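Researcher: Please translate sequence to structure tokens.
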Amino acid sequence: MGQVSLDIQQLIDHLHLPEKRILEMFSFRLNDNVLTEEESIRFIHFLRNELSNSTR
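Model: Translation complete:
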């Protein structure tokens, strides 16, 4: 497996926290556009789901 950047590793390490807390710690962008709170929360849910599926 390749190396994971420090920012991504920190996000993964904090995915157990409530969404609001994660949003206080991280800013999510797509093509230089900041995601809305709703979009960011959906992305957090997506990450949690994908990581959960990969550990099964």
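Researcher: Any highlights?
Model: The longest strand covers residues 29-30.
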